[in-house]
C-alpha cells in the first residue's frame, strides 16, 4: 500500500450474531491507560436508534473515556451496557519489519488530517478536528423544520470537516440533510503523530496512515434499529510501501456482567460475535443480547476483483494479550502472539 486508498464498511449489530479480528473476554484487569497527551474528543455519541455509543476522533469507539466506563449502552436509556471499549487496529510490513498502530485502552492515532504538501500531521489540537454530528432532520417545538439549527450545524461541518475530506452534505428539497443514514458522525485521525507514549502493543514507528471515519445509523424498527455502521477511508500518506497489511476491529465486549462472556466466529457468514455463557446475566437477566461485528465491504485485492471478508479471528483473556507490535501483528493474522514462524 503506497499512495493508495482503501475503503471499508463495518457493521456493529446487537441482538443478532453478526466481526472482530481480535476480541477480549472481559475480566478484572485491563491494560493501563496512560495520561493523555492528545486532545481527543469523546463527547459525541451516535444515538439515533436503540444504541447509544461513544464515537471519538482517535480510532476508538464504544469507550467512555470521559468517565472511564463502558461506552455502548443498549437499549438506549436503560443504563445497560454491552461493550466496554473497541477500536481500529492496523498492521503491515515495511521493508520486512512489523509496524502496528492500535486503538485500545489507549490510542496511537491522533486527531487530524495529514498535510498533503509537507506530509506532516496537522496540529491535533485544531478545533476543526473534533467529531462532527449531523441529523437528517432538525425539528422545532411545533414539529416544523428548524432551519436555524440545521443551518448552524451544517455551516460548522462545511467549514471544519469538508476541507479535510468529509463527504459534502446538501440540504434536500424537503428541508432535510442529505446524509447517509438518519444520523451521521465524522472524524479524521492519523498515526503519523504518535510518539514515545504509544500503546505498548504497537510499534514506535507509524504506518503513515490517515483515516477518515464516517459513522451512521438509521432510526428504524427491526434490525436497523439495533445497528451501527462505520465506514473507514484509509489513505497511505507516508512514503513507505505497506505489504501484508491487516485491518482489524478490536473489541472488549463487556456484555452486561463481564465475567460470563464468550466469543466466537462464523466463517461461513464471515462474522465475529460475543454472547452470554449463562441464561442469567448480571445486567440483562434472561434477555441478554449478543453483539456482532461484520466487514460488509472489506478491502479489495487482485486488482479489485476480490473483496476480503473475515480473514482471521482471535481472542485473549483480559489482562493478557499482545506485549509488543510483533505479537499484535500475529494476533491479527490469527496466530498465537509468540508464533515462532512469524516475520519479526
Can you offer a commentary on this structure?
With 344 residues, the chain is mainly β. Helices cover 6% and strands 34% of the residues. The protein is built from two helices and 23 strands. The strands form five sheets. Strands 1, 12, 13, 14, 15, 16, 18, 19 and 20 form a nine-stranded antiparallel beta sheet that branches. Strands 2, 5, 10, 11, 17 and 23 form a six-stranded mixed beta sheet that branches. A hairpin with a 7-residue loop joins strand 8 (72-73) and strand 9. The chain is globular and about 60 Å long. The two termini are 19 Å apart. Residues 15-29 have low confidence and may be disordered.
Note poorly predicted spans: 15-29
Total beta strand runs: 23
Strand content: 25-35%
Amino- and carboxy-terminal Cα gap: 19 Å
Radius of gyration: 19 Å
Mean residue pLDDT: 88
What overall form do the CA principal axes indicate?
globular
Biggest pleated-sheet summary = 9 strands, antiparallel
Category by helix and strand content? mainly beta
Number of helices: 2
What is the helical fraction, as a range of percent? under 10%
The helix/strand series, from N terminus to C terminus, equals EEEEEEEEEEEEEHEEEEEEEEEEH
